[in-house]
Amino acid sequence: MEPKEWKLKALTNIWTGDNKGKGDRLVPTGLMGSLRWWFEVLVRGLGGKACDPTAENVRCPNKDKEPHKAGHHCVVCVLRP
Ligand SMILES: [Zn+2]
Fold first, then answer.
1. What is the percentage of the chain residues whose pLDDT exceeds 90?
2. Whole-number Å distance between alpha carbons of 67 and 64
3. In the chain, helix, strand, coil percent, each to 5?
4. What does the mean pLDDT of the chain come to?
5. How far is the CA of 66 from the centre of ligand 1 (A)?
6. If I label 76, which of 26, 41, 63, 68 is the partner at 20 to 30 A Cα–Cα?
7. pTM (predicted TM-score)
8. How far is the CA of 25 from the centre of ligand 1 (A)?
9. Sign of the CA dihedral running 27, 15, 54, 61
10. Does residue 40 register a pLDDT over 90?
11. Residue 44's pLDDT is what?
């Protein structure tokens, strides 16, 4: 599968907040976490499978699949910054 590049434009201010609830600066990990969460919603809403990084038995990578082969990571885990 060829990598795809997406360019997104924020239509509103982006608020990510820090551990004290302050939104003085953009926190890239918070932004990526939010994108991942919404991508999981989209994938599951369309009937696809997304792993759960917080659950031991449904977390990527799938150890039964070879790296760089289909099924090693779910489509959500393929999302990279
Ligand atoms: Zn995954």
1. 20
2. 10
3. 25, 0, 75
4. 84
5. 14
6. 26
7. 0.69
8. 28
9. negative
10. yes
11. 95
